[in-house]
Amino acid sequence: MTLRATNILGFLGLFLIAGTLYASGQPPICTCGEVKLWVGTIFSSDNSQHIADWYTLSHILHGVLVALIGRLLFPKLAFKILLLVAIVTGVGWEIIEHTEFVMAAYRTTTINMGYHGDSVINAVADYIWMMGGFFLAVRLRTLYIFILIAVLELSAALIARESFVLSTIMLLYLIDAIETWQQESNPSKS
């Protein structure tokens, strides 16, 4: 596969995500009827419905991790193959994330109660953010990639009390201390 064909496949990924989510019943935009650039709280019904939110950092991190793992474990891997891995994992995650199995698993964590999936525009934006993280990381030195990972994770964890690592931990094994800490910032629990 040529780099050009890989780029076309990456672009088609946008339509695959949008078409799959729309066909499965996800709303094209937030049911509130607005499209916002940023939603600053994970406890809002607007979360995962607009262009960006605190989970955007996790999607950027996904792309960064694909580039980093490729660099560290497969240093001779051709760029177009690594790009294909980013495309497949990005598109794949956005589709798998919206299966009832995964959405139900998310709803078992208190922080995601009531989660019914992303709007189509949010899922497409998540994929674009992920690809942005990938393209940024392939251009950075390894040390700067590790610094970027720390900044993304710590910013999300300390400000929003949610991050890639925290989401993964809570999805796999619910830890009461983490849940309690996260809920301390929930305005409806005040």
Can you characterise this structure?
By secondary structure, the protein is mainly alpha-helical. It is built from eight helices and no strands. Helix 1 packs antiparallel against helix 5. It has helices at 3-23, 56-73, 79-96, 100-107, 120-139, 142-160, 164-172, 176-183. The mean pLDDT is 94. It has one domain (13-20, 46-189).
Head-to-tail CA distance between termini: 55 Å
* Global geometry: globular
Would you tell me the overall average pLDDT?
A: 94
Task: Work out the strand percent.
Answer: under 5%
Secondary-structure element pattern, one letter each: HHHHHHHH
List the domain count as a whole number: 1
Computed CA radius of gyration, to the nearest angstrom: 17 Å
Unreliable sequence segments: none
- Number of DSSP helical runs: 8
Helix fraction? 55-70%
Largest sheet properties: none
| Class derived from helix and strand content | mainly alpha
How many individual β-strands?
A: 0
